[in-house]
Amino acid sequence: MSDQNTNHSKYNELKSMCKRHIDTYNVLYQLKTPYNEDLISIYKVIKTNLIDSMKILPCNIVKGILDIIPYNKRYAKTYLELAKIIVDEYHVKNVTSIPFISNFLFYKKYGIKLHCFEEYEREDIDNLDKLEENTIYRAIMYDAIETFIYFIEREGFKKDQKHYRKLLYLCCYHGAINCFKYLRKNFNLEITHYCLESSFLGRNPEIVCECLKYQKPNDQCMVNAIISHNIDFVKLLMNEYHLDIDLYECGHYNNIESLLYYYEKTNDYNKCFINSSIFDIPSLSEYFFLLGANVNAKDHEGETALHLAARFNCRETTELIISFGANVNEENKDGATPLNIAAEFDSPDAAKILLSHNANDGEAFYIAASNNSKAVIELFLLHGANVNGKDNTGNTALHIAAIAPSNEAAEFLLLNGANPNEKDKYGQTALHIAAEYNRKEIVEILLSHGANVNEKDRNGQTPLHTAIYNLNRKICEMLLSHGAKVNEKDKDGNTVLQIAKRCQYQDISEVFHSYGVSK
Q1: How much is the pTM?
Q2: Which of 89, 345, 376, 519 is deepest in the core (most CB within 10 A)?
Q3: Where in this chain does the record put each DUF3447 domain (predicted)?
């Protein structure tokens, strides 16, 4: 039997082994179910195929569902409802590394923060809201050509090429072939590389073919083809345009079929082993390992299969890879171990297994504080981490949380014994740090937990001095309202009022005046 036939046989074997996963995520990514229609039946498929049969963590499935929303906004409500069913059924509390828009929409709809966020892009949310209204955007989403033409022709419609180009892009994104043809025929619009890239997300072969006549596909086209879960697009780009299949993105967007096709074409079991760990299907990782994959093989970022399993919180696969002899302290190009990665991406299940196998915790506790990884912080504290311990630069986890800022992490640390007045090597407390970096929420948290508003650093400066030097008016107001003393002098004998006057900080001087301080 030829190598080609052998590889194809292995491809079919692996595809059969992963059939439940492939079929389920193909349904999810190519969803065509309106809100509240057949939700329970889809949930039952997820439960049977992924949770019960494959033992995939419910939190990872919620992440997998919410990852889809930016690429299939038409069914955002359905994805949110599916995620909510799983969250309720399995008491999911924390889901990390999900798109901001998905996290925010879930919070907006259900009042539940699956993971902490500070700010959001108003434009993204507004654009999604427009899909609910009777607008031209909704007409494109449903390829309602008569409604689309009505908006185009009515009085007051914005008639310029830039706006038409945006509409053409949206036609590609939503696969709206009739609206696409109308714009091309009537306005002589150029097909850009953005049109081609988005056409793979729209999954309309006719639009894809038309765009390929005018633009050469790039790596983003391959990523979008992977996201589309259309294996024909992936094969086209690999075979006709010689683009590599990005195996990391296959894992990120739960596209096993594309990873298996890559293996069939290349026989690169090391690369497939590394990236197969993202799916958290132990039998898949084991298959590539038994073919001869090096358990400590690295990708272009210097990451092993264990790094990726830790990044995506793959509990079962983390355990399996370690049992194969993986080095739990292997470093990537940036010097990060799998435990560091688990701390960065708030992967408590993977972190717990790594700690049980004597992974060196090193700076991981402080990395967790920097990335607002509350679940991993809790795990480290349960394993005996000193909440007031200092890293190799003299900062406590609370100092680091103040810099980041990591609001939820800071609150959690304080609730678990962190000293709000602990000082770094410069004599600064977390309140000094928050005042310097203009972290208003952190300042509020620290003050509510007893931070000394008049504590001095080694230069004799209080947090109010720091806020003034950094022109942080709002912080000054907050500190003054909590009893900050304006006559405290630093080592050079300067009060905050003298500094404001000498430096002509008019804005800050007005704050003092509003509090009745003039000299």
Answers
A1: 0.92
A2: 376
A3: 187-262
